[in-house]
Amino acid sequence: MEKTYPDIVGQIPKLNSQLYHRVIDRIKAHDPNTPIKLIKSIHEIPFSMPKNIPATDRDKVFWEKVKHSLTLREKEQNHCYGDMRFVHVFVAVEGVVESYQFVIGGENECPFMCNMCYLQGTFKSSPVPTIFTNFHDDGLLIREIKLALLAMHMHVQAEGKGDYIGRKNQDTVHRIMGLLNEAIGSVNDTQSIHDIFTANKKAIDDQLTSSPIDKLQPIRDNIDKFNFQSLTDQFQFNCSELNDGLANDHLTDNSKFLMDIFENPVMVKDGGWLQIRTKSDNFDNLLQARSNSNLKVSLSILAPAFIERTANIDEKLEGAVKLQKLGYKLSINVDPIFLHGDTVKVYSKILDKIASNISTDPAIFDHLTLGMLRFGKNTRDIVEKRNPKLFGHYQKNMVKEDEKYRYDRDKRIKIYKGLIDHARKVMPGINIQLSTE
């Protein structure tokens, strides 16, 4: 597919980072006439809506224009995440199993137009694709990643590691991250979390002693028992939960920046690894990388219904073959699956295409994920305004379950069973997972 570029850019004044200049230079190299508009706040869109658009179409037209624009700004600290900017603990829907993992938010939204995308609900009030220009600032992200890893290891060693982290423990880890943020100064990529903890133990102990937060008592009790030298637990850092991991990579080089961080042997020893998930085939930086042993690429293979501007199936698989030849470990996501006639037959053809292209050797293939279409309430409400056809599909076929609107459980089970049976037939031995079920 052709790489996407914005038709118009909105930027907060006085940006001057290397990443900011890189993005502007590459946009201007593509089209010197791309307008750059100064905006006052993150909620200000960089374009004006035409006045003659009927009220019933305004939200749809707004979304289409938003997807062809870009905002540049710095990201600020978030008190809910321990005053971190870019890193937070991920938790999915209550009652659905989530792994112990972190989100890295170097961008918000993306230029692709997937009408069912959950990011429409996440960024309901500010849906403009955004690149944070302080993401590469010296030492900023590596410090947050190290503190997040240290906090998670402290939590797991003090309280044990269950099947999933849950919202209660998410809050606890964020509180530990906030405490470490107060106690620890600068951090560099040569320092292990053992080194960081040892050098700052007194300051951490002082912060714990003065903190009134009851949830931190297990950390206080174990301050002299923690051991970060022989770690076995590993924690995923997903840079694609709030955006597409590669859609803007030709503008940012974020993948190169992140791979340099996660390929460091110290990071590997500390138990942090990177996942990049994408609907694109924007693999240029990955194909030129020096190493990929601590990275997994998660590729979404979607039927074309209700999707625009993403790479097609053949383009993605062609790129995936190149990645596997270089030793990248892939996972494939067939998600979301739409109820569509003989659904098992429709999506079995997609599985056949995957099987005929992708190696399922465990050395370079991790798992196949299957997931049925679902909506959170915010996303459902926005889809009603932006895509009446998709909303009609929802009204006809979906019911509320586990905080989300889903297809009937019996239908889901039947479709999953049919597709799992077919996947195992055409890709013997494959590891299959279900998404948010």
Output the radius of gyration.
Answer: 22 Å
- The tally of beta strands, per DSSP, is 18
How are the strands of the largest sheet arranged? 4-5-9-10-11-13-14-18
Label the structural class: alpha/beta
Could you list the spans in which at least 5 consecutive residues all have pLDDT below 50? none
Shape: globular
Mean pLDDT reading? 93
Counted by DSSP, the helix tally is 16
Q: What is the secondary structure topology, with strand pairs?
A:
Elements: E1 8-11, H1 18-30, E2 36-38, H2 58-66, E3 69-73, E4 87-89, E5 101-104, E6 107-108, E7 113-114, H3 119-122, E8 130-132, H4 140-159, H5 166-183, H6 193-210, H7 217-221, E9 235-238, H8 249-252, H9 254-262, H10 265-270, E10 272-278, H11 284-287, E11 295-300, E12 307-308, H12 313-325, E13 329-337, H13 343-357, E14 365-372, E15 374-375, H14 377-386, H15 388-397, E16 398-401, E17 404-407, H16 409-426, E18 432-434
Parallel strand pairs: 1-2, 1-3, 3-8, 5-9, 9-10, 10-11, 11-13, 13-14, 14-18
Antiparallel strand pairs: 4-5, 6-8, 7-12, 15-17, 16-17
Helix pairs in contact: 4-5, 5-6, 13-16, 14-15
Structure report:
The chain has 437 residues and is α/β, with parallel strands linked by helices. 40% of the residues lie in helices and 17% in strands. It contains 16 helices and 18 strands. The strands form four sheets. Strands 4-5-9-10-11-13-14-18 form an eight-stranded mixed sheet. It has a five-stranded mixed sheet with strand order 2-1-3-8-6, with no helix packed on it. Strand 16 (398-401) and strand 17 form a beta hairpin. Helix 13 packs parallel to helix 16 and helix 14 (377-386) packs across helix 15. The chain starts with 7 loop residues before the first strand and ends with a strand. The mean pLDDT is 93.
